[in-house]
Specification:
Largest sheet of chain B: 6 strands, parallel
Number of helices of chain B: 11
Oligomer: heterodimer
Mean pLDDT of chain B: 94
Helix content of chain A: 40-55%
Order of helices and strands of chain A: HHHEHEHEHHHHHHEHEHHHEHHEH
Number of strands of chain A: 7
Order of helices and strands of chain B: EHEHEHHHHHHHEHEHEE
Structural class of chain B: alpha/beta
Number of helices of chain A: 18
Distance between the termini of chain A: 62 Å
Chain lengths: ~425, ~325
């Protein structure tokens, strides 16, 4: 039986993921990423965040590619890079449960899916214990949280003070969840302040729920840095899923996209870097054919409130970004495909202890192939040749296309009615 | 075109390539095995169960008819229900004691009422002294193990710490086990152990990851999960007292499966075999098959395949009985 080394396992993990067309960290580690422009820009923005002493708005990159062009592979690669660079990193897949138009849900999804370099566990549970009140980073964080012009409700510095000084572990836990997006009893916070003799310092009311999500995001970014990390990278996948929403929800989604991508000048999220992916046909099939370009903004303005007028302007930015500022994934050329083919052949040999034969790799494209398709085809054929040595495999492929039609199941999640959260965030 | 694979061929590959290979070495995989004959499902379950047990895996079964497979925490609880947590903690104690130089021959996790008492007796030591001697290793290898999420590692540490000193002593770790199994989901039961969170949708995956690491740390090959999801695709509620999944719940279930697939690089030593029925293969987005959730379908569909041969290592296979060959 073949001796298993750490590399062998890593290669098999990579092959198992690629067999499914899903790149994992092992797959991207062995294959690399063939999008040098996006890689360079990402590295540059990470450096900018880490080295900057001046808070600036969140930074964003929007990437477009066809199905199978390597969007998920790219995000996996960027995640590895971010974690290796000591950023906290979250993958958020836009879906029914995580609608882009709902900042609170996207924030919570980012928290829930947050990965902390080198540890297993929920982001806030693993990061918060690392806050060291004796450190310079914490001192800066605390000073900022307590300043009057940070745009935060006083509940944030109040909870930070209690978290730092209270010996009530359970209350500390509740505070961490509050920071992560859950509710907290105000009475508990006040009890905590009393226990540390700080009631007279912090007086606060419960902020309206709709203001909490952006404040939490802002607060969490500084908390992450205070805990010793360089910043927070959020990788947002499958943005094309917004096509399933109603027009009103799509309009709100474009507004939120602008916020996440740092296109909102009056809201700063220093330390945040967002990379989003969208299908390359989205602009044509949704912004143009579905006429969102013309209808989304008026739909928001029709509400005739300041909030929706602001959202309308942001939606304009969001749509403009999709149309003009998106970076198209470069299609692999023949040289790249051959390089990946040779690399995969080598990995397959090392992974299975089998001399992987050359096969008809099909790198004379007929217009239907993409990297995912090539990789799956090659691995599939090698599997069959290895498991059925006497057979002559003949691989065929069915094309898969994404369907942009609306899905009313999505509409039930906060539909066209003004779904503003008037209730307080705490009780 | 529907390519069908013989059960025997698939089992041979699952054994040689996965259970006795990749998974045992620390890899993870999620496989979808669709029995084309409804009666074949139980045969798949029993064969894989036997294989897994023989190869030192913990084999667990989850059925969508009695477990809410659209909720990750329910899946965790069902798995946890089938684990002897105390047995695992005792294995850790015995191993750490052996590594510390204590005599542990003849002491098995289930051979004595009090493991610490047995070790103490074998070494002419007070059982409390034995635990005291193990604490530094427990701290380093369990309490500070970053591959275990915070509440999980606290729970495992406490399970080791609450082992009894003498036969007949009351065991104080049951609240932890009840919490892990979902028997008592209230946090009040585990507060005395410095755990303040329930196991829920958002942290269940970390408990699952941690569990996999724990099983291998304890000395098992890993975990095999056999998940029968045929109930999910029922179009009408048969009102038979068993679970029924409406469209949103079915979609949630498919999302849970997608999350497992995407997380395989964080899972250690795990083979999950999902056993849906034929209706699962419906690619239309109006049905209740995987077509209603493209994110899952696109990950497992065999759009790249051979004209006649079925790749037994594919994510999705359609199985037929070997005797039909």
């Amino acid at each position: 039986m073949m001796a298993i080394t750490r590399d062998t396992l890593r290669f098999r993990r990579a092959l198992e993921a690629l067999r499914n067309g899903v790149p994992n960290k092992d797959a991207v580690a062995v294959l690399g990423c063939n999008q040098p422009e996006v890689e360079r820009e990402f590295a540059r923005l990470m450096s900018r965040i880490a080295e900057s002493t001046v808070p600036e708005s969140g930074l964003g990159i929007l990437v477009a590619g066809d199905f199978g062009a390597g969007k998920s592979h790219l995000l996996e690669y960027l995640e590895n890079q971010a974690l290796a660079a000591n950023f906290v990193c979250s993958r958020v897949v836009i879906s029914k449960e995580t609608p882009l138009f709902n900042l609170e849900k996207v924030y919570k999804a980012a928290i829930d899916n947050g990965k902390v370099p080198g540890v297993t566990g929920q982001m806030i549970q693993e990061i918060a214990p690392k806050l060291d009140p004796r450190s310079d980073d914490y001192a800066r964080f605390s000073s900022w949280a307590n300043s009057e012009d940070n745009g935060l409700s006083r509940i944030f510095p109040a909870t930070l003070a209690v978290h730092e000084r209270s010996s009530d572990f359970e209350l500390q836990n509740e505070i961490r969840w509050f920071w992560s997006g859950e509710r907290i009893h105000l009475a508990r916070v006040r009890d905590g302040l009393r226990s540390i003799n700080q009631s007279h310092v912090y007086s606060f009311k419960s902020p309206p729920a709709r203001q909490l999500a952006p404040q939490r995001l802002r607060f969490m970014l500084d908390l992450v840095k205070a805990a010793g990390y360089r910043g927070w990278v959020i990788l947002m996948d499958e943005i094309e899923l917004v096509s399933k929403y109603s027009l009103f929800q799509r309009a709100r989604s474009y507004a939120e996209l602008a916020r996440w991508m740092g296109q909102v000048p009056d809201e700063a999220y220093p330390g945040l870097l967002v990379v989003g992916t969208v299908n390359v046909t989205f602009a044509a099939e949704v912004l143009v054919e579905k006429e969102d370009r013309d209808k989304a903004v008026p739909k928001l303005r029709a509400k005739q409130t300041d909030e929706y007028n602001i959202a309308a302007a942001r939606a304009e930015s969001g749509m403009r970004m999709i149309e003009r500022d998106v970076r198209k994934l470069s299609e692999p050329d023949d040289t790249t495909l051959r390089t990946v083919y040779e690399r995969l052949k080598d990995i397959y040999s090392q992974g299975y202890g089998w001399i992987t034969p050359d096969i008809n790799h099909g790198i004379a494209r007929d217009g239907h192939h993409n990297m995912r398709s090539f990789v799956r085809r090659w691995i599939n054929e090698w599997d069959l040749r290895r498991l059925y040595p006497d057979a002559q495999p003949e691989i065929e492929e069915t094309e898969i296309r994404f369907d942009y039609k609306e899905d009313t199941t999505f509409e039930k999640e906060g539909g066209d009615a003004d779904n503003a959260q008037h209730e307080d965030a705490s009780h | 075109m529907t390519n069908v694979l013989s059960l025997r061929k698939w089992l041979d590959v699952v054994t040689s390539e996965y259970l006795d290979g990749f998974i045992k070495d620390g890899g993870a995989s999620i496989k979808f095995a669709v029995p084309m004959d409804p009666d074949l499902g139980s045969k798949v379950v029993s064969e894989i169960s036997d294989l897994g047990t023989r190869l030192n895996y913990l084999v667990v079964r989850v059925n969508a008819s009695d477990t809410g497979v659209h909720l990750p925490q329910e899946i965790f609880f069902k798995v946890a229900e089938q684990i002897d947590w105390r047995f695992l903690a005792r294995r850790v104690i015995i191993r750490l004691a052996g590594e510390r130089g204590y005599k542990v021959e003849g002491i098995e996790p289930d051979s004595h009422d009090s493991i610490l008492g047995a070790i103490g007796e074998a070494n002419a030591l007070d059982p409390q002294f034995v635990l005291h001697g193990l604490r530094p290793r427990l701290q380093d290898e369990v309490f500070r193990n970053s591959k275990l999420s915070k509440d999980f590692r606290i729970a495992m540490t406490q399970l080791c710490e609450t082992e009894t000193f003498s036969p007949g002593d009351g065991y104080k770790g049951m609240p932890l086990i009840d919490w892990l199994k979902g028997t008592n989901r209230k946090v009040s039961g585990v507060r005395p152990f410095y755990i303040y969170n329930d196991i829920n949708r958002t942290n269940a995956r970390y408990f699952f990851e941690s569990l996999l690491h724990w099983l291998r740390y304890v000395g098992l090959s890993g975990l095999v999960v056999l998940m029968d999801t045929s109930r999910v695709t029922l179009l009408r509620n048969p009102r038979d007292g068993l679970r029924f999944y409406n469209r949103p719940a079915a979609m949630d279930h498919y999302e849970v499966l997608r999350e497992f697939i995407d997380a395989t690089d964080r899972l250690e030593g795990c083979l999950m075999v999902v056993l849906p029925n034929v209706e699962f293969l419906d690619t239309e987005d109006t049905g209740k098959g995987f077509g209603m959730y493209p994110a899952l379908m696109l990950r497992i569909i065999d759009e790249v395949r051979d004209r006649t041969l079925v790749n037994p290592m594919s994510s999705l296979v359609r199985l037929a009985d070997s005797t039909l060959e």
